[in-house]
Amino acid sequence: MREEFLHYLWKYRLFDEPALKDSEGNSITVLNPGEYNRDSGPDFFNARILINDVVWAGNVEIHTKASHFEAHGHQFDRAFDNIILHVVGENDRQVFNSRGEPVPVAEMKFDNSIYDRYIELINNPYVIACQPEVGQIDQTVVAQWLGTLAVERLEEKSVRILNMLRSTENSWEGVTYRLIARYFGFRVNADAFELLAKNLPFKIIQKHADNPFQVEALLLGTAGLLDSELFKETGNDGYRRQLEKEFKILSAKYSITPLHGWLWKFSKLRPANFPTVRIAQLAKLLGVSGGIFSRIKETRSIDQLAPLFKVSASGYWDNHYHFGNSTREFPKIVGKQATNILLINVVIPLLFVYGKQYNDQEISDRAIEFLEKLEPENNLIIREWKEAGIDADSAFRSQALIQLRNNYCKKRRCIECRIGYKLICKGKMFIEQNRLLLEP
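Above: the chain sequence. Below: its structure as tokens.
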């Protein structure tokens, strides 16, 4: 028996209430199960129960066995002295609080079919545990839950942005630079791009924003990609030598230590996504006068933002993917898919956090509106959900499905998921139709 399952039963009163009695055989009526607590302290705060016509108000602690109260050291913790009820799956021992007083206990009885459905769900071999049944759920419930998850995902991204703000002396432009750099690397080179942005502070980029060649030299040089040992036949490449010469001057001026060039991954990437090309595109993007974040903040339409990121690498890269051998001419423009990745993972979270930070609800709402208007992502996770019968018609919905799959399905947090809740207690009376989630 899992303790989290007993939490779930208590929260939604899915246990056998008439059978709930204390150790002396007195019937217990649950007036309010309390507020679920995921932090330290008792499991439920401010519960209210009725025993022998006396109303008790306080906290409730839940364990699979009564003896776990002592196993967890609660008998020494004053935070557990105001327990009005110790709810257990098995009452195997009388336990006492820090004052030496017996803790009132009650065994929870429940329909075993609920537990069987729960175990069947979490042991399902599919990544999406409810894949065979999710299509049975009312789509209104699904839509409401996905709306909650999309915002939850934005909140999680907000934490990362706020941490970046602290490390960049509250520079929104600096954070924008770091985030853009990370997502320019896609999944394969994301960490390397972020390390590049940390090694080359944005204030240095700003000083040379009006000189694209210098910005490109700074980025490629700091990345360690101007090393002639990295690519064959680069000895006679005049453009690389010019960049190298420029970087030597600038690196001496700013005391820049380059990354190791072998950090970057080229294998199994389409040539258009080689880090050399992506860095050259990033250099062009960073040449925006006035800063990128200021543009983002002022823009009222997602359609007006997309062109900001649709930049082309400098002319040299029209017929190169790396230094040395030339190829047929093909301008290296940031495509629609890459632009959408930047809008979803950089622009929208930045606007959302900025609005929250400065209590500007209009900006936060604008971020949500942008997400609703963007096309959904097309990746493995979204295709898995489509197979299960749930489509994504916007980036708002695809982001929610990614959050659901990664933070709930993979971790088997089925009883914290509104879809899982419905499937586990199928056919049972819901105590709170409008509160189908254990609060995080």
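The first strand starts at residue 28 and ends at 32.
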